[in-house]
Design goal:
By secondary structure, the chain is mostly helical. The protein is built from 23 helices and six strands. The chain folds into two domains: 320 residues, Up-down Bundle (Na+/H+ antiporter like fold); 135 residues, 3-Layer(aba) Sandwich (Rossmann fold). Helix 18 links the parallel strand 1 and strand 2.
């Protein structure tokens, strides 16, 4: 009991420092575990190693359960093909790059395989929270990323099952994989049939729902154990069962504080068991981090663009996926338990995981994405699309749901219209109808120059985010065009006015009212 008390005290200190210094909590939790290890050795404080290992295993169970609950396949059922292409390509090619880099650094094949496998999966915990915080969870690229995470988690779980059974030979390994797939099929059936039926039939209180969620976790973990599978397979599938709407939201809401509690203990315990890697291993870790980020961003961006996503969406997806996963820790922990990895190698993989998780929040900023877009060959060498001679025209930035009516209204009033949209399919359809359209980001100054927005009569900012409209307004500062921007909050409208634009509050202006507003303000003759 005193061991848990010490771990919770360290967790409280780490969270306090995280709030005070405005830093991510995970690296501070792990540093807290390392500091606790040093103090325990110096002050001869006895913390039971079995307690620490149990805490790690329990934390992993909660971690993968939460990851499963966040990954509903229904969110990506219309994007199955791009999800399969991107997830398989990233998992295999990034894993291969990791294996070859590890071999180049001098590691034997088995160790290199573990390192490459650890690099090949991205963190569900980090990516889902990032998408939720930026309200991008239901965007096309957000759904793509969620689908890739789901497939990667399945791949890594099957890999862990195979590695655990590999000592028994090919037959034992195949049997273990079949058991895991069979349990997954049962979970999929319950996800599709049982959970929606329960949600429709019963209206249980929060306590009953929480007990039901925990019962699902313990039941599937026990079944996995009885099938001689890693109990974490059962934990992930239990979360997957409950990932159907609205159950997933209820689970996150009810178990959020419990999850944070166990995750804090988990990362502190990981820090406590870390062995300080040698200087050479730290250098190797840095090389592997660089390979991970560069290969992931280039690979995902290239493939996502070929699959029809805009350059910005493709870059955002690549950056969001450029970190190792909590499942990488699970894989490394399994490798250390099986004797395939040393404690120092486990520590190196753990440091890579925490470092890349932390870097994601730093490199996924808009300024970084814009900088990368400027370096993108498509953006650097793109030619004008024949719009440079237009003037006194209308530019619609973002087609959206009201695009058809808006374009028709503008054309009826004698204006030539150029539509800028990030979706390649939308642009292609508009061009097939004989309309002017350009694929690109409406907040990009180069794109605005391509459509000669400075010489337009009116520029309508109907992009997904008000912040993009603000960027466009800054780029069009001093232009003769009247810039109208769709806003969602009062403070956004104030910023638009301050930059010389005309805000339209979407809460009070539906499509018809918006068009009437344009005409009544004499913006269109």
């Amino acid at each position: 009991m005193s061991g848990y008390a010490i771990l919770m005290l360290v967790a409280a200190i780490a969270f306090g420092l995280s709030k005070l210094l405005r830093l991510p909590a995970i690296p501070l939790l792990m540093l807290g575990g390392v500091a606790l290890q040093i103090l325990a050795n110096k002050l001869q404080i006895k913390i039971d190693p079995a307690l620490v290992q149990e805490t790690i295993e329990l934390g992993l169970a909660v971690l993968v359960f939460t990851a499963g609950a966040d990954l509903s396949p229904r969110r990506v059922k219309k994007r199955i093909q791009p999800v399969l292409i991107l997830s398989c390509a990233q998992f295999l090619l990034l894993g291969l790059a990791g294996v070859m880099t590890a071999r180049w650094l001098g590691y034997e094949w088995m160790v290199a395989f573990y390192i490459g496998s650890a690099l090949s999966a991205s963190s569900t915990l980090v990516v889902v929270r990032h998408l939720q915080q930026r309200r991008q969870f239901f965007e096309p690229y957000g759904r793509l990323v969620v689908g890739v995470l789901l497939m990667q988690d399945i791949f890594i779980i099957l890999l862990i099952v195979a590695l655990q059974a590999i000592a028994g030979g090919p037959l034992e390994c195949s049997l273990a994989l079949l058991k895991a797939l069979a349990l997954g099929a049962i979970a999929l059936l319950l996800h599709r049939r049982l959970v929606p039926w329960v949600c429709r039939r019963f209206r249980a209180d929060e306590e009953t729902l929480m007990l039901g969620a925990l019962a699902t976790l313990f039941t599937f973990s026990a079944v996995a154990y009885l099938l001689e599978l890693p109990f974490l397979v059962g934990a992930f599938l239990a979360g997957f069962i409950l990932s159907a709407f609205p159950m997933n939201g209820l689970v996150r809401g009810m178990l959020g504080s419990i999850t944070s509690f166990f995750l804090a203990l988990f990362f502190i315990s990981i820090g406590f068991v870390l062995t300080l890697p040698t200087g050479a291993m730290l250098l190797h870790g840095l090389v592997l981090i660089i390979v991970l980020i560069v290969v992931t961003v280039l690979l995902v961006t290239t493939l996502a663009e070929r699959l029809g996503y805009s350059t910005r969406a493709a870059l955002e997806a690549g950056i969001l996926l450029s970190q190792t996963s909590e499942f990488s820790l699970l894989l490394a922990f399994a490798g250390m338990s099986a004797g395939h990895l040393s404690a120092q190698l486990f520590s190196m993989i753990a440091l890579i995981t925490v470092s890349t998780m932390t870097l994601t929040s730093l490199i996924s900023r808009d300024s970084i994405i814009w900088g990368l877009m400027k370096l993108h060959p498509k953006q650097r060498h793109s030619k004008t699309a024949g719009f440079q001679n237009l003037s006194d025209h209308a530019v619609l930035l973002g087609y959206g749901r009201a695009g058809r009516q808006t374009v028709q209204f503008l054309i009826e009033h004698g204006l030539e219209v150029v539509v800028v949209d990030s979706d390649a399919a939308t642009v292609r359809q508009l061009r097939e109808k004989g309309l002017h359209a350009l694929q690109g980001d409406g907040s990009n100054a180069q794109v605005l120059n391509q459509v000669n927005a400075h010489q337009a009569r009116v520029v309508l900012c109907s992009m997904r985010y008000s912040r993009d409209a603000l960027v466009a307004l800054r780029a069009l500062e001093g232009a003769t065009a009247k810039v109208i921007a769709r806003t969602f909050e009062p403070h956004e409208a104030e910023k638009v006015r301050a930059l010389g634009g005309l805000p339209v509050d979407t809460a009070h202006a539906a499509t018809g009212n918006f068009l009437s507003w344009l005409e009544s303000n004499a913006l269109i003759k």
